[in-house]
Amino acid sequence: MTEHTTTSAERDQRDERDDVVDRILRGSETRAGLSVFTPAQAIQTEGLAPSRRGDADDDHDGDQFDLEERQALRRVAGLSTELEDVTEVEYRQLRLENVVLIGVYSQGSLQDAENSLRELAALAETAGAVVLDGLLQRRPHPDPSTYLGSGKAQELKSIVAGLGADTVIADTELAPSQRRALEDVVKVKVIDRTAVILDIFSQHAKSREGKAQVELAQLEYLLPRLRGWGESMSRQAGGQVGGAGAGMGSRGPGETKIELDRRRIHTRMARLRKQIKEMKPARDAKRANRERNAVPSVAIAGYTNAGKSSLLNRLTRAGVLVENALFATLDATVRKSVTDDGRPFTYADTVGFVRNLPHQLVEAFRSTLEEVEDSDIIVHVVDGSHPDPAAQLATVRDVINEVDGRDIPEVVVFNKSDLIDESQRIVLAGLVPDAIFVSARTGAGIDDLRARIAELLPRPELELELLVPYDRGDVVSRIHEIGRVVDVEYLPEGTRVTARVYPHDASGLREFAG
Ligand SMILES: Nc1nc2c(ncn2[C@@H]2O[C@H](COP(=O)(O)OP(=O)(O)OP(=O)(O)O)[C@@H](O)[C@H]2O)c(=O)[nH]1
Ligand SMILES: [Mg+2]
Question: What is the value of pTM for the model shown?
Answer without folding.
Answer: 0.64
